[in-house]
Amino acid sequence: MSSSSSQSFFALCLRSRSFMVGGSITAFLLLCALISLFWTPGEVYGISIATRFLPVSAQHWLGTDQFGRDILSLLMAGTQNSITVGVVAVSIGLFAGVGLGLLASARRGWTEELIMRFSDFSFAFPAILSAIMITAILGPGGVNSIIAIGIYNVPVFARLTRGSANAIWTREYVMAARASGKGKFRITIEHILPNILSILIVQATIQFAIAILAEAALSYLGLGTQPPHPSWGRMLNEAQTLMFFQPMQAVYPGGAIALAVFGLNLLGDGLRDVLDPRLSRKR
Amino acid sequence: MALLDVENLDVSLSTAMGPARAVRGLNISLEKGETLGIVGESGCGKSMTALALMGLLPDNGTTEGTISLQGEDLLLKSEKEMCKIRGNRMAMIFQEPMTSLNPVHTVGRQIMEPLRLHRGLSKSEAFKETIGLMERVGIPNPSERVHNYPHQLSGGQRQRVMIALALSCSPDILIADEPTTALDVTIQDQILELIQNLVDEEGMALILISHDLGVIAENTEKVAVMYGGAVVESGPTDQIFGNLAHPYTQGLFAAMPKLGMGRNGRLTTIPGTVPDLINLPAGCTFTDRCPLATDECGTTAPSISTVEAGHKVTCHHIDQAINGRGEGLYK
Questions:
Q1: Structure pTM?
Q2: Do the Cβ atoms of A195 and B103 come within 8 Å?
Q3: B174 confidence band (pLDDT: 50, 70, 90)
Q4: Which of B83, B94, B148 sits opposite A181 (nearest CB)?
Q5: Which of A100, A165, A244, B258 has a CB 3.0–4.6 Å from the CB of A158, allowing a cystine?
Q6: Is B59 within 8 Å of A108 when comparing Cβ atoms?
Q7: How close is the nearest chain B Cα to the Cα of A169, in Å?
Q8: What is the predicted ipTM?
Q9: CA dist B289 to B230, B269, B294, B297, Å?
Q10: What is the pLDDT of residues B49-84, one digit of tens each?
């Protein structure tokens, strides 16, 4: 039985074009990050002024930057950074946000009121602004920018979880579960969470893309990853002053950011088609 | 001491328009092994009564009165204590077998859960017991079915699963809220027979809620007819069906389609609709729809009078109602 359902799951995956394209792009980025852990075509941390602004060649596929570092290597190493930020920030948001959302939905009353008003309050600030605020308090740096983006993710997940969980709580099978003597905690774990999981997974991929974008923005502003660690946002920042005589310096990291966000968003859309066919038909 | 004693139970739901009095002054007494039918049309408080008994009212519901199970007042119990009673000493079967099972878990797992929760069985013991239960409720091939998801079973089979689930801990009281309404007629009979047999075997008390008088007549010993949140007629099933007294009960009876009525015959109906539970009329709640209503009905609430031993009716004009039964109160 389980084999037939997993077969149809894969069949659905293969049939969804956005899942396939988004999935391939994401897999490609993951691969780049993985490879860069062991090997990059050129130096990432070494500065060599003699080889600065080298054009595209067999040795430097995308040329070198103002410090003579291989751009392709920087981009690959930057993937690591973006993925780390995405994973950690989304995890923070998932654990805290989903926990709070489930709590609000199970307890209702003033607990729900408190959690939801608090998340409304944090929603009032634009994402980047609140991230800047948090890094201003904690100080700039890679870890702090991750925390800032993670905190921004908490109310997003809290709100989504609470809304979808509330809908599940009214279902008859939840009533039946209560009638068989299960407490709210058990029902939350056994009945509510599995039924909202697909919605959360889809949202997580979208938040992942947003996190990458936010990290790039923070690094661009100098609040995120600090030199010499490679980051797409910082590469953009450094390329800004060279826009007029070395425009490609900005195009490469910009393209990488766009590709990652595009791929993850497509993957999110595809996952929604696959995991929740009812939602995709409505669109 | 009766197994279940409900005294003066009031249920009200707070709404934006004010409190809706879903159940008023309900009295029920149930002995071990007894079967009670609760009958009435939609919105008369049947399901709210069941939920109140289980302590599962919606958040905006409040209860007054007493519900005592073997002398313990359930309304005074904490949620934690109620969790130990639900599914263990009192179990419930719901109307919609299609939606009463969680789509993401196998049916076997769902039957196993209360066994492990209340009886503390190990996984393998619970699994064995589950297969036994599924066999008992007449699911063919239980050792394979146990791994099925709800969507792989038919409506009748799902209701059998729900019964197995309710039965798993041998409760003292089984509450069945319209257990067959969503099923087709042939399956209805099978399910009711199954419930009846299991209740007999286990010596459980049964509260069967239905809007179908036929179902109630065939499956219960006692019956309570509810209207507008209150019981208007109650007593032994034989006596009530042999001697319909309350105009509302007569109306319900007259409204049943009968065989041989002909295609062009019109169904008899009770005119009007159920009362607004937020603004209940001062006197008898059935006044607006009653063919025998007088000024007195609109102003003073009728008291309970006894027609025969155990057969109680709440009406101002019982004699007139019984006398008028021959030619029918509703035309």
A1: 0.81
A2: yes
A3: very high
A4: B83
A5: A100
A6: yes
A7: 11
A8: 0.84
A9: 16, 10, 11, 11
A10: 999 999 998 888 899 999 999 989 999 999 899 999
